[in-house]
Amino acid sequence: MEVKSFYLKPKDGQPIAEYLPGQFISVKTYIPSLGYEQPRQYSLSSAFTPKYYRISVKKEKNQFNPDGIVSHIMHAKLAGDEIEVSAPAGIFHINPLSEYPLVLISGGIGITPLLSMLETNENNNRNPVVWLHSCRDQAVHAFKDHTDYLEQNNEWLTTHIFYENKNKEDDQAIHEGRINLHEVKEEILIDNAKYYICGPEAFIKVQYNSLMQLGIAGENIFYEEFGPQLLHLN
Fold first, then answer.
1. Whole-model pTM above 0.70?
2. How would DSSP label each residue in 131-169?
3. Strand boundaries in 44-189, DSSP class E
């Protein structure tokens, strides 16, 4: 399993701190091979509930690089294990009470904060949402069944899925290759929409530049980079 979700419940049984859809928490866990604790930030991947925080962790292939060490330790955790977490934080989020349409653009595990936005929208305003998601193939398509269910049962949601390696068995509606916003511009050029991008650095650069080419104002584009924070686009 490449992506595993964790439901983090307070040890004292008290309600958790509230958060905005798109924010993250810091998780600190002990790394035996290093002999000390390591912190990592993980996006909250569900709409707010006072009972738990949900994070969804991708297991990196190389368990000996800095990112892989923590993800492998996290995937080995069992129900009842304890970890330390921070209060939610982050400026990448939507206003749960907003009334503007959303265009969500995710690459790989960048789906997680946008899923929190989507679930919040379902619970609150049900504003129009267009979601574009890109990943390698169906085997690593996180939350596929959940997002398929949401689209099939909600008229306000439209999704466009892109697989780099599309198979003959895949749904014909799935696009082959990486996200091309110019290909679906009629779907995403929406009056008063806000655009949220999440994924690795190169992915964000391509999508941000495409939105600018399509005439979207920079103040309506928001992004969060997974990995070292290197981008300063707006």
1. yes
2. EEEEES-GGG-TTHHHHHHHHHT-TTEEEEEEESS--TT
3. 53-58, 84-85, 102-107, 129-135, 157-163, 175-176
